[in-house]
Write a structure and sequence with these properties.
Blueprint: H1 18-57, E1 65-67, E2 77-79, H2 83-97, H3 100-158, H4 163-253
Helix pairs in contact: 1-2, 1-3, 2-4, 3-4
Amino acid sequence: MYEVKSFNCPAYGKFSNDSHRLATLQLDAELQNWHTCFATYVSSQKAYVEALSGWLFKFVTPETELYSNGGPLLSTCRINAPPLLVMCHDWLVCLNKLPDTGVTYAMKSFRKDVRALLVKQAEEQEQKRKVDGLAKELDRKVMAFQRAERSVLDSKLSRQEAEMHVRSRIEYLMEKREQLDMFRKRTDMEKVKHQTNMHETQQIAVNGFQTGFSSVFESLAEFSQVAVKMYVELMTFCENSVADEKSSNTSSKE
């Protein structure tokens, strides 16, 4: 995603419209749902293991002690604790060490980028409406000036008016032309602002996916790697516990 410079879709490079804003709103809603589902997934696992561990602990003797020294899964201290309870305890310790906060932070950060895009799209749309209104007003002013110009020229050609009157009509047209030129410059300036807004909107979209969305997947990849390692160690512990139990049973029979 870091190599993305633009989007190869027909709408890219064009001004934002209502469909673009709707798509961004839908993306924001999906991100919120994604974050909620992920948080629920992590908290549900922890709640399940806590409940299971608490239930199992009711069946062990009061002398049993179980604690973790903060090391890896298999370095947990065990004193008179059954393997299943040890496994649940280690499982919960590892769940609490999962880098889920990194995923949550990345999702929230990317959602901020999406909301910034929503704001920029709204600004761009507002500027587009302003430019369209000025362009229509400019067309009306141009047509009005052309009518006034034809009227002056026709009256000049059709009647022999006094020199002073003709000069005043010409001065009137010159004044209107200056006003028209000033309005045209204003319209052109607002068009430039709109083009700038379009560019800024596109940059926010590209940069948001380059950094924000990439960070989400990077944090999820890290979370998944740690989670896989955790479950591999849990499976290894279970297999070793079963093997030890079989070996113990065989020895007792002999």
